Amino acid sequence: MSTVVVDERPAHLTRLTKSVRSWLPAAVVFATGLVSWQWLLPDVAGIESFLLPRFSDVMDALWTERDALRAGAWITFKEALGGLLLGSVAGIAGALALARWRPLGSALMPYFIAANAVPVIAFAPVTNAWFGTLSPWSKIVIAAVLCFFPVLVNTLRGLTSVHPSSIELMHSYAASERATFWKLRIPTSMPFVFTALKVAAVLAMIGAVVGDFFGGSTEALGVAIQSSVALSRYEVAWAAILVASLLGIVLYSGVALLERVLIRWHPAARDD
Amino acid sequence: MRGVVKRVGTGVAVLAALCGLYTGYRWLWMTTGWTWPFVVDDITMPSLDSIVGALFDPVQTDGQTLLSLLVESSLFTAREAALGFAMGSIVGFALGAVIARFVVLQRGLMPYVVASQTIPILAIAPMVVVGLGNIEIGGWTPTDWLRVSVISAYLTFFPVTVNTVRGLQSADPRAVELMRSYASNEWGIFWKLRLPSALPYLFGAFRVAATASVVGAIIGELPSSIQDGLGGAIINFNQYYVLNPQNLWATNLVAAALGIAFFLVVVAVERLVVHRPPERFA
Amino acid sequence: MTTPETVVSLAGVTKTFPKGGVTAVQDIDLDVGRGEFISLIGPSGCGKSTLLRIVGDLVSPSAGTVSVNGKPAARARLDRDYGIVFQAAVLYDWRTVTKNIALPLELLGWNRTTRRARVAEMLELVELTGFERHYPWQLSGGMQQRVSIARALSFEPALLLMDEPFGALDEMTRERLNLELLRIWAETGSTVIFVTHSISEAVFLSTRVVVMSPRPGKIAGVVPIDLAQPRGVTTREDPRFFEHVTSVRELLHAIGADSIEPTLVEGFE
Questions:
Q1: Nearest CA to CA, how far is A156 from chain C (Å)?
Q2: A265 vs C93: CB contact, 8 Å cut-off?
Q3: How far apart are the first and last CA of chain B?
Q4: Rounded to whole angstroms, how far apart are CA atoms A248 and B137?
Q5: CB–CB of A174 and C104 under 8 A?
Q6: Which of A103, A190, A250, C230 has its CA 20 to 30 A from that of B222?
Q7: A195 and A61, same structural domain?
Q8: CB–CB of C58 and A172 under 8 A?
Q9: Given B107, B249, B260, which is nearest A26 (Cβ)?
Q10: Are residues A138 and A175 in the same domain?
Q11: What is the pLDDT of residues C202-213, one digit of tens each?
């Protein structure tokens, strides 16, 4: 009598059930969410439209306002992207410099980490005074400062967290400091840099959108959100938020895609 | 003792360097008259001494000093942020613990929780604050600052949930096997193994959440025209910026101090609770 | 240019680490001839890894002289006279097998064609042809170590330093890699200094086994191994293999009992 259990089902069917089982719960949640949004919350629970308008109403507003929203999305996206690029380049450059003068880097590290705790957004009115409320630069600077410290800290961490054995190996080859820097430290730091860039992408979006809360071009998403709320046009506000969220996902995914292309060698254990 | 002196010394040096850079930049730009990236004058970049001086001037004629106003405002905002942080952490941890336990929930909910970290949640702030002001639960409308706390809670909730799930599941499977060999039940494993393993992750989330709570509270105050907090102060001083730029700058300094203070509290508690090996700088 | 008969010469080498004042090794005198296979064996803390790193100029001695290939150790390192293999393979995750092996060649400034040719040779030597485009995480521990060995030998150094390279592997893989190492040693004619914890491995591989005593690390004795070359699977069943293992083991026990006086076995003056 055999005590071994034999799987009678063909291989491709088992694979299918496995993948269904992995995304089915998420799909169920999504469907439930959509249903609640459209019917349960408004009709059954009586959630008034000023908190969460019906899904269909939001979709209508999205359609009717599509031109304004598209223009706003483009403005906000440019501000976010500009801030991301500016802040990241500055952060990486700073980290490269500090990796050269390691005692300075390790002394300043706790301050960079603390600087990340400053509510930079509160500075938006001042940048408005610098560049003018309507200028995109006032938001770009805010987004850039938001990105700068996370990128700096993480890139520096990556450049300096090299395994001692790897350094010994380079010494055994009598490799110059420069060679060690380019062939060892830089590649080691790449995963860290991309983690930071993904965080920075989100922060840049927040900086661009929320920066507009303090005033900005009338078409920008943040301004649209704020003014719609003030006028009690909640469907439009939610439509704008949806667009902003989509932009955030696009920006983040762009960085993630770049990461997948540039560091193919990183073991597949990534958790996004 | 030497370590503390060294730390304070570096701190003072950093502060002095920042003041020096600011004053130096200001002086250089004003003497040369450069207009890139922006014009530097007493309005766009007030001098450091005028900012400090403004702290001790009365805000309105014969009223309280700016400093005392800002301290009151920070306490007001701090209360909102702290309450939000606490609420968000508790709910986030509870949800995270439940999700970590049941794989089905994890597959169903985690994609959205993680995805929510890529969207600018802060943009919803005005909506939430205004919207909650319009609802009535049995004749009770949430007070102003309670609504703002909800924003802080919301911003805290997501990182705490994600990190709770990660942290609770980070226990080495062999360590779990060891506990089972001691005939420990699931609760025992939770308290003695999973929870301690999760602490470093939790505090990672708390660091992010501490800052986010403060930012959320400040932003949350904007649309509801709450006067008493830092957000209100920023709006007010922004209106009269051209007349009195020092006030807005001083408010920013105080807001920065508040954010850093929250962060340092988390770091201090973490140092007591979690024993992390020091960061290696090779 | 005549090649020196003595590849490594240590005289009065002592190393005391400033932090904690620990004397890792003391008064080490040792000469290693060309083509020899020397094992350093001893209990934990006897300084064998430190001694290896002193030969490689990765650690500088507090006293004594080290000469490699007739030059001071520092010069030998800059001239890249040796290759080193660590216990962990220390391969770079972002480089394929090919690029990992080519790393020292890149640093030496070899052009791409010569690099490619040499890498192919090396892969054949360690019997990993076909794995050129693999990444380290796709390989088993034993395979990673073979890549590490290939890398160490890629620029044909006269001397090979190995710090417990097979320590993290299972017994069967280790025995197989021992055979491979001996074959490579015979084919390349290099000199090897090999640090290990395993008595049977030391006896199987070496022409001489140097036993070291714990802190401060001193040479307790040297056991010449006169088993026939080339050694193979049957060597381990040779009764004289067992005798040598016993000599080494007894020496290790002796230094455990009274850890001061070094006991000398024939062959060491």
A1: 19
A2: yes
A3: 25
A4: 34
A5: no
A6: A250
A7: yes
A8: yes
A9: B107
A10: yes
A11: 999 999 999 998
Domain membership flag for residue A268: no
Q: Which chain C residues have a beta carbon less than 8 Å from that of A270?
A: none
Span of A10-14, A187-191, A246-250, C104-108 with lowest mean pLDDT:
A10-14
CB pairs < 8 Å spanning A and C: 49
How far is Cα of residue B73 from the mean position of the Cα atoms in its chain? Answer: 16
pLDDT at C2: 42
Count of CB atoms situated within 10 Å of the CB of B280: 11
Nearest by CB to C135, which of A163, A184, A265?
Answer: A265
Q: Check which CATH number belongs to the domain holding A215 and give it.
A: 1.10.3720.10
- Token pair in block for residue B24: 């130096």
Instruction: Please indicate, yes or no, whether residues A156 and A241 belong to a single structural domain of this protein.
Output: yes
Is the pLDDT reported for residue C236 higher than 50?
yes
- Does residue A270 lie in a domain region? no
In a domain, A267, yes or no: no
Residues A107 and A17 in one domain: no
Query: What pLDDT is stored for residue A194 in this prediction?
Result: 92
Residues A92 and A199 grouped into a single domain: yes
- Tally of CB atoms within 10 A around C97: 27
Between chain A and chain B, are at least 3 CB pairs below 8 A?
A: yes
Tokens of C160: 């090979």
- Cβ density class A123-142: b for 16+ within 10 Å, e for less: bbbbbbbbbebebbbbbbbb
| Terminal-residue alpha carbon distance, chain A | 47
- Does one domain contain both A20 and A78? no
Nearest CA distance, B154 vs chain A (angstrom): 15
Question: How far are the Cα atoms of A50, A91, B267 from residue A152, in angstroms, in the given order?
Answer: 42, 4, 20
- Does residue A269 belong to any structural domain of this protein? no
- What φ, ψ does residue C218 adopt, rounded to 5°? -130, 160
Whether pLDDT at B154 is above 60: yes
DSSP state of B278: P
Which residues does A186 contact at the CB level (< 8 Å), separation at least 6? A159
Give Cβ neighbours of residue B163 (< 8 Å, ≥ 6 apart): B96, B198, B201, B202, B204, B205
Min Cα distance C130 → chain A (Å) is: 18
C17 within 8 A of C40, measured Cβ to Cβ: no
Distances (CA, A) of C190 to C10, C159, C202: 19, 6, 17
**Into which CATH architecture does domain C1-81+158-269 fall?**
3-Layer(aba) Sandwich (3.40)
Q: Which residue on chain A is closest to B110 by alpha carbon?
A: A26
Q: Tell me which DSSP letter residue B111 carries.
A: H
Cβ–Cβ contact B230 with A under 8 A: yes
| Contact between chains at C92 and A184 (C-beta distance less than 8 A) | yes
Number of domains in chain A: 2
- pLDDT (tens digit, 9 = 90+) per residue, C67-97? 998 899 989 888 888 889 988 888 888 889 9
Both A63 and A156 in one domain: the answer is: yes
Question: What b-and-e string marks burial along B177-207, b requiring 16 or more CB atoms within 10 Å of the CB?
Answer: eebeeeebeeeebbeebbbebbbbbbbbbbb
- Dist. CA B64–CA C234, nearest whole Å: 96
Which of B253, B242, B194 is closest to B73 using CA atoms?
Answer: B253
Residue type at C114 in one-letter notation: T
Flag whether residue A172 sits within 8 Å of chain C, measured between CB atoms.
yes
**DSSP state for residue C88 in the 8-state scheme:** S
Specify the fold of B54-273: MetI-like fold (1.10.3720)
Q: Which residues pair with C162 in a beta bridge?
A: C85, C194
User: Which domain range does residue A29 map to?
Assistant: 1-47
List subunits contacting chain A, requiring 3 or more Cβ pairs under 8 Å: B, C
Q: What percent of chain A has pLDDT over 90?
A: 25
ipTM above 0.85, yes or no: no
Based on the domain organization, do A133 and A229 belong to the same domain? Answer: yes
What are the residue boundaries of the structural domains of chain C, listed by start? 1-81+158-269, 88-156
Domain locations in chain B as residue ranges: 1-45, 54-273
